[in-house]
Specification:
- The protein has 358 residues and is an alpha/beta fold.
- It has a single domain, classed as NAD(P)-binding Rossmann-like Domain (Rossmann fold, 3-Layer(aba) Sandwich), CATH 3.40.50.
- 40% of the residues lie in helices and 19% in strands.
- β1, α1 and β2 form a beta-alpha-beta unit.
- α7 crosses α12.
């Protein structure tokens, strides 16, 4: 049974995905609590943007999901919880695996326990990652021109793929993923898991470690050099943020039917594009001709990851509507309008597995 409260909580709500989701919910007349620890670049700008647009209709709280008592207080009175707060970078998890574990595993556990303790637990959506599938070395891959493809002709990776957590980040998100799945099964918490591929769009402040598509766009607009790790033929199914938000809201609307389900969410085979393809499209849009250098492959970088979104399409009645070509044009336009194209000394980097696989 869904929670009886009248508010919706978005943890990590001032982040890239969270701020877009909160904006959509607020625009639909919902009462939204945005909870964030404000540790990432750009999140204060996103929170200020939400406040400007929605005023007192949005409640912004500084909170860390590792604080169980704080989490429990925020979850009380909510009918839905979108749990997006996380440590999101493989590189950061390698440098500080304890903080990664405490944020991603203990933080998720705190959210789940807060929900379980309520008479009417709120519906919960957890954002997981394709990293739970690991390197997928057993999947046959071939080079087709300047991009990798699945050699056996499959459209993408389905939810039945073997779990094989790689890196501390993969382990922490994978453990949290399984906790959410099991709390739905064992305790009846109405919960759903999205294993997401590469999400991009407005309100994204791309860095070397996370948000590679926006990072590329910024580099192009600023005239900064790019470094490609590997051959640039790596393929990802990039998904425009508004398409993801729509899928999230559909899942919550159908929570009684989809509780306990896992969905692979990405752009799918129609939005599968290589690193080189993204660079070429951004060149066409911006007219930029930035220097590009090559470096060795990063350990564990998947040559191709494409989500098989058939289950989401069938069960949720959803499909990605924004083509990657159109999405990149919209992204570049927003980066320019937001005055983010001022040159900086930072070097733009394609970070292989840590960056490209999201």
């Amino acid at each position: 049974m869904k929670g009886k409260g009248d508010s919706i909580l978005v943890t990590g709500g001032a982040g890239f995905v969270g701020s877009n989701l909160a904006d959509a919910l607020l625009s639909a007349g919902e009462k939204v609590i945005v909870a964030d620890n404000f540790s990432r670049e750009g999140v204060r700008m996103n929170a200020a943007w939400l406040k400007r647009r929605h005023g007192d209709h949005v409640r912004i709280e500084t909170a860390d999901v590792r604080d169980a008592a704080r989490v429990a207080a925020l979850v009380q009175g909510c009918r839905q919880v979108f749990h997006l707060a996380a440590q999101v970078a493989v590189t950061t998890s390698l440098a500080d695996p304890r903080a990664d574990l405490e944020t991603n595993v203990l933080g998720t556990f705190n959210v789940l326990e807060a929900a379980r303790g309520m008479k009417h637990p709120p519906a919960l959506l957890f954002t997981s990652t394709n990293k739970v599938y690991g390197g997928m070395d057993e999947v046959p891959v071939a080079l087709d021109g300047d991009r990798y493809v699945y050699a056996d002709g499959r459209p993408g990776i389905g939810e039945d793929a073997r779990l094989d957590f790689h890196s501390p980040y993969g382990c922490s998100k994978g453990a949290a993923d399984q906790y959410v799945h099991d709390y739905a099964r064992i305790y009846g918490v109405p919960a759903v898991v999205f294993r997401m591929s590469c999400i991009y769009g407005t309100r994204q402040f791309g860095t070397e470690d996370q948000g590679w598509v926006a990072h590329f766009g910024l580099a192009m607009l600023r005239g900064e050099p790019l470094t490609i790790y590997g051959d640039g033929c790596q393929v990802r199914d990039i998904l425009w943020i508004e398409d993801l938000v729509r899928a999230m809201r559909l899942a919550m609307e159908k929570i009684d039917a989809v509780s306990g389900e896992v969905f692979n969410l990405g752009g799918g085979h129609r939005n599968a594009v290589s690193v080189r393809g993204v660079i070429e499209r951004l060149r066409d849009i911006t007219g930029a001709q930035v220097p590009i250098t090559r470096a060795d492959w990063r350990p564990g970088d998947q040559k191709i990851y494409v989500s098989d979104t058939a289950r989401a399409e069938r069960v949720l009645g959803w499909r990605a509507e924004t083509s990657w070509q159109a999405g990149l044009e919209k992204l570049a336009g927003w980066l320019h309008e937001a005055n983010l194209d001022t040159p900086s000394p930072a070097r733009a980097v394609v970070a292989g597995a840590a960056l490209v696989a999201g």
